Amino acid sequence: MIIFTIRFITDPKSSLNVTMGRYFALGLIGLLVFGSISPIWATSDLSVYLSASDTPAQSTFKFLESAFIEYPNGGKLKDLLAGKTYTTSFTENSNDTSVQDLMHRLNTALTRDQKSPVIITDLTVRYTATIVGDAKSASIDYNLQLIPTLTSYVIKKGANDNDPTIIDAAWMGLAIKDPVIIKTAQYGDVEINTPISFVKKVVPDVYSNIQGTKAEDALKNNLIDASSILQEPIDQWNHLFDPAFIISETSGFGYKGEKVAITTYAMGQSGLDSGSQKPTQNMIDFSTDANYKLTTIQHASSATVNIEGHAVTTSVGSTPAFGTTPRSAGGDTSNGLPVGVIYGMAIFGAVVAGGILFWSNKKLKDSANRPKDTGPARTLEYEERKHWADRFDKKSAM
Questions:
Q1: Which of 13, 17, 315, 371 reaches 20 to 30 Å from 148, CA-CA?
Q2: Any idea which of 82-96, 108-122, 190-204, 274-288 has the lowest mean pLDDT?
Q3: pTM (2 decimals)?
Q4: Alpha-helical segments (H) within the chain
Q5: DSSP calls for 265-299
Q6: Residue 202 CB: number of other CB atoms within 10 A?
Q7: In this predicted model, what pLDDT tens digit does every residue of 104-116 receive, in sequence order?
Q8: What confidence tens digit (pLDDT) does each residue in 141-164 have?
């Protein structure tokens, strides 16, 4: 359990502090209801909404990585990078033949490596890589997003409301191990899967200085690798069943704002009992014309999977899966807590926050209605202090 003790030492007459109290109350609602704070390095590797009717689902994979080259002793790398910024950023979709090729490779990997029946029918690629150098070091940041449209993720459709529909989960660990080249109008051919490729393309002189060193080897890993998502078994993920879920994404399930039963499975989020993964940090010393240090940070994996109905974890052979029915038979929700308890906690948080809002409004009104100090009152206060000081001075003189 995480307990927050927050103490305000402020002027109760200040309307600014009352206003700040309102924002604090709103933030308190978020903490009480959701009960989780994302780690500072964490990123949402995967988010998706899956329907029991096998409606095409658009998912989002995010692959982030950071690296830092330090040059405390100067050298050629400082001369080449200090004060410089290099960026490659583009978005391509399935109209691009190179994106079609990547889509085909992903489908092959899903079948061969993940043993998944899922088929990707559309794909968008978003890529941004940046190098920013200063007097002491240079940072390299990669942000690669794959947004595939998934079909055929329902393995078996339930015959009735009590017979679960089986949804494949093995596809979540997709990975590509070889270079991936995307053709762009602005940058030409861009290799997006290997971090070192960006350095080689945009700053070839920097690449020639680290070629053949441990630093080059450290930047040869593959960005497109979501296998870490399934390293934590899905039956250990946090989960929450909501029988009255209303989100805009339900339009993808064939609904238009109606209440929909949804089960959310999540991993990698810092919360009450989640086994959130940690970012991986590696430090390497290497030498060319001077001594340098490379630090690579592979961000922690996380996933949020929303499934229509009341879903539980299962398996098909040795591959992970979800089984979902239209409604819950026992009212189970987040990690065994009854749905009434979860809603009760949310209502309690809302009541507490509402009390804070009421108190802050009252203080604000009292402050607004209180007579303000006038000119004569200030003069009188000044005269009283002056008179007291005069008496003190007279006694001192005696």
A1: 315
A2: 274-288
A3: 0.71
A4: 15-34, 76-81, 97-112, 195-202, 204-210, 214-218, 339-369, 375-397
A5: EEES--SSS------EEEEEEEESSSEEEEEEEEP
A6: 17
A7: 999 999 999 999 9
A8: 999 999 999 999 999 999 998 999
